[in-house]
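Quick question, first post here. What does this chain look like in 3D?
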Amino acid sequence: MTVDQIASVYDFQMLGPLQVCRDGVAVALPARHPRMLLAALLLHNGEIVAEGQLLEQVWDHGVGSVIALRTAVSRLRSWLRDTVGAVASIEHVDGGYRLRLPDGSVDATRFRVALAADSDISGLDPHQRLANLMNALEQWRGPVLEGAPDGVREDPVVRALDDDHATCLQRLAALAISVQAPELLLPRTRALAQARPFDEPLHTRLIELYAACGRPAEALMEYERLRSRLADELGVAPSADAQRAHLAVLDQDPPVLGGFERTYGMGWGRPVVPHQIPADIADFTGRDKATAFLLDHLSGVLDDPMRPAAPVAGVTGPAGAGKSALAVHLAHRLVPTYTDGQLYADLGGAGAVPEAPARVLGRFLRALGVGHAAVPEDLAERTALYRSLMDNRRILVVLDNAVGEAQVRPLLPGSATCSVLITSRSRLVGIGGARIVDLDRFEVDHAVHLLASIVGHERLAAEPEAAAELVQLCDRLPLAVRICGARLAARPHWPISGLVVMLRDEHRRLDELSVADLAIRDGLRQSHSRLREDARKALAQLARLGSVEFAVGTAAAVCGLNHADAEACLDALVEARFVSVVASGQAGRFHYRLDDLVRLFVLDLVPAR
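> Answer (accepted):
Ran it through. Tokens below.
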């Protein structure tokens, strides 16, 4: 079967704003009246809905007409035919209309089937029941047909679906407590309970969840709010079930959550708040524009009620440009904004073996309070649990040294209350909605200021010309400047000019740019090992050009490639940060250049090849 012959999958969604998807992608809906007619018929899929009821619901208390209804039906039929083909049909039967869709293509039907299939006497393991019902709950994106006219939203089917939603959450809450994972359901149960202030069973489960999470004060406050609301509005006392939950909180000792470990901070009355960001750099210098931009994006966007997803920011640049230092500095500045904590992982993009997302998720889950035995083995299950625990919490996730999109995607939270900051030598353009900041080398004055902050301003003031030449020999890379500063600070008797003399020798320069566990060569070596073979060979030839600018035609001639292949190799080298685009020539032709440290590194490899 060819790709063109594979049938599309259609999904009609009403557990939230009305939406129709084809192969997982939302399609444009018809105009208002045909759209609302679709919503009204979708509530009764396969059943006849009287014309009078449709007029009342779609046109709001009978201001429409039979002619307007038939026109809307005609337009809806045309839209269905053009959009989903034979999957859907509308019939005129006995003074009404009936929509026919396969049950599996409607989210509400799938949800109800899964809920009906669940039973505490079915013999299923509670973990399996929890997984099944969580899958059913994922069908919900918001209130039923959110944004539809009141006439549609007042349909009894809407109320019944809302009740089923609450029933599902009540069962899930009980299951989550039984398998000692109450944090999974707390945010969703709390949100729905706020929308259903007089739903006593749901508020009772919320009280029990608070208690099971080790938050007795909030459990008692929830009961008191429920008691006051019932007394003031209805003149009744809480149910016996709610009162039993209240007494259990008053009588209980701090709960032992087998799946959650107190060693990670799950205290009595206090959720886990991870703080994993490494120490900030005391002499952090420069990057004012990048810092201001990212602070604005990662803090201001959280106050936007229309944000659709977790804000993502990326910091890219060559090896040694200070991407990790900037990310750590930003994370410390953002501590007051992300009150529920910060997660950090070095994804190993600068090392020989990048971190697997499953391993990182395991560490994140344990930091969020999940015990070793409760961490799932499967990557998809780890991701689902991670996103559940992050839901509605203000947590910043810092993913340092990422290799590519596939490594990052499982680590992205699903909640718009969280944010993600990624550093990578690649731009990671496949992460939708990410705001990217490119870090280049320092300006000379910023590089000199960094050097002064390490070795002292008096020392630089004595040799300003040597300091300026030193940072140029470092290609103005923050890491290289920091290495030189560390070497000079460890040898206060050395003149700056003495180190400059050593760096002028191109055969020694990379050897001199190393101190303790910091070395310019290490980052270059890892990036070089990930180059494809044709780009690696082209780089070796281009290094022989010296410190000059060149165009694609020059690269093609030097490397023995045609123009298209030379351009492809240069694109790969630019992406890997070995080649810089320095200017645009005539007719939009780009000029390129190898920076000195890159050129010296590559030339150093040539004799060994």
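Confidence is low (pLDDT under 50) at residues 1-6, 253-270.
The CA atoms of residues 57 and 155 lie 8 Å apart.
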